[in-house]
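User: Small ask, check this?
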Amino acid sequence: MRTFYDAVARIEEHGYVVLRTSSLYDTEPWGGAEGGSFINAVYEIERHNNALQFMQDILSVEADLGRRRSKTIAARSCDLDLLLWANEVIDTPTLCVPHPRIPERKFVLIPLCELIADCLHPVLKTTFAELLLACDDLTPVRAHQA
């Protein structure tokens, strides 16, 4: 839980303003990752710089909070993803925005819908609420109990 608040503070230390944060959710590991349940949330952050710089900054925050990248699906101390960059579509070898697995993951869609349920996915042109209704992810997502 402390890592969540530390991540927000570190993002702000990089000069970003966290405008809103969804509720916190407990989620069983997705895709067979080990390490017990995860705490998930979505931040709305005021943009500056560019998406690639922001991605580099959040990777730095992850590393500062103990993240070691050994394999794709593994337990981790902190996992920050760049889900959206306003309505921009970015597809480069190092960055893909919107995050390509948003429609597959309820642990992303549920907190995302708290903040922008009626907004359109920049590629799919479907609201995030509609994506959540169509999502067939069976992984339990529960409100976090502090």
Remarks:
- The longest helix spans residues 51-64.
- The two ends are 8 Å apart (CA to CA).
